Amino acid sequence: MIFDWTWEAPQRVHLIWLAIAIVGGLFALELRTRDAMATFLSPAMQRRLTASASFGRVILRLALVLAAMIAGVLALMRPQLRGETDEVTVSSGNADVMFVLDTSRSMLADDAKPTRLAKAKSEISRLIDKPDKLANPRVGLVAFAGRAVQMCPLTPDYSFFNTVLNTVDTRSAGKGGSRVGDALHAALRGFPPGQGAKLIVLITDGDDQDPYTEDAAKAVRDAGVKIVAIGIGDPAGSEIDLVDPVTHAKQKLLDKTGKPVISKLDSAMLGKIAVITEGAYIPAGTAALDLEAIMQQHVTPLLTAANAQVKRQIPVEEYTWLVMIALGCLLASLWVAAGAGDRRDA
Q1: Sign of CA dihedral 293, 143, 285, 122
Q2: Per-residue pLDDT tens for 12-40?
């Protein structure tokens, strides 16, 4: 049977010399020990005071150890059956979803109850609690306002993701404003190189102040990443209430002229981003944000298509037989060593 094998790593055969050197060292140590005992004790006293194995047992034990090591080296050389292959199904890469969440003050509008931001966080958290609905990808989080901050790198640990998500508020991105383009660039930097499904889920009211958002969307498209944009808020606009953290009193957010700021859902901008990246735009508006249904309808098919399973042919590995031989030789050497009570000197 061994003549039908090929070797994936034949260069490892030189490890046999190391095995021979180790066993040779053990043999030399055994001879040295016997010579030292012979210097101080007569053969009769040696038999009375020590339980040394016969010389024949020593040779047999070391031969079994050497056989075990040689079998192990041959296993490391990865023998494969010549001309035989197995068909296996493998995934073409990882599935990664980066949530990009608008945390600007416009997301405090209460046209989506209780607020746009609170509703979006609640739905993301509820979805993450059911990872099978997402086809079990790694997930990450970018919060953005006037700048973008990666709050959570891509991770398969959904509990950690949820812990980070719960800390997100309008102070997470620090600077005021809303720059969608910066957020897309930050999300793109969060993806690792290589194959696999990569998807950005952008949740915002579209109140964008970045003149380079379309350029950012093209960079995302050129990187092979799609965007599912979810617009939340009233297209007609809604006033923004700020809550005092001490008194909990509400007050309207005012512009420079003293008039209430009206935040409107910008569907046109979000739709354009989705078209550029061949993704999807979902105008959730002020209705109940059923993120689970949105993901099943728009996200899961994209992940499944981009991360489709493929069949590969791999050689038939035969190293298991050698591992079993190595273990058998080691067990046999232990059994031989257990006969150290044989005090007959060869």
Answers
A1: positive
A2: 889 999 999 999 998 888 777 766 656 65
